[in-house]
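call fold(seq) -> tokens
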Amino acid sequence: MRVDGVEVSVEGAGSKAIVMIHGWPDTHRLWDAQVDALKERYRCVRFTLPGFDLSGPKRAYSLDEVLETIRHAVEHACPGERITLLLHDWGCFFGYQFAMRHPELVERVIGVDIGDAGSRQHRAELGLRGMLMVLGYQVWLALAWRIGGSIGDAMARWMARAIRCPTDSRAVGSQMGYPYAMRWLGAAGGLKRLKVFKPEVPMLYIYGERKPFMFHSRDWAGRLAGRPGSLVLGLPTGHWVMIGRRREFNDTLLAWLSETEKHPPAGSAAI
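ret:
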């Protein structure tokens, strides 16, 4: 089906749906291995974020536009259901904001490698060196988006190789960087007055341990791990955990999904 100009695919069987949202510089194909692992028990719903399809026009989509596309995709593919979100990178950012705006649609959340990134506690743990590293790659990609064309594409592909992104660099384009332009250049209205995600539902958080810095604070992860029905797990790999440790990642997904269905927490409170 097509929703707001975005192609939404649904694969698999089962009474429950898992909606998968990728980040930079990926597409819906990021989740191929997870669909293969989950589709016998769940309906897997996925799509490429607006603006990330290189065959489409280059433009920045506002936060409200992206969240409305997610809502429409969920309502069309999973009418009357509460869904599980499976999120990575910018998919976490958009998915977390969606979960806070539409709690009636979200039953569980699986976040991959992005926790309370940007919070006061996270910035304090990053320190000056970490904050400069974050600033460096994000502003680079924001500028690549602004420059565009062959130069902007070359900048985006260079960064993808520099941070060891497993995505084929030929599939990377500068137009995928508009979320960074939103943050640093104010594109499409920018990102203002955002709230740090405080999950109200069971959450699985899986992160890569082999990175120059983390995208969560120890305090946030510790409080999440103490909540009924939630789990925090670090694996010895980088940012793309679902690729670097595919088997462990998929096994953890299946086990946690099964456990939270057999023993749902009696009540949930924000961390």
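The longest strand covers residues 106-112.
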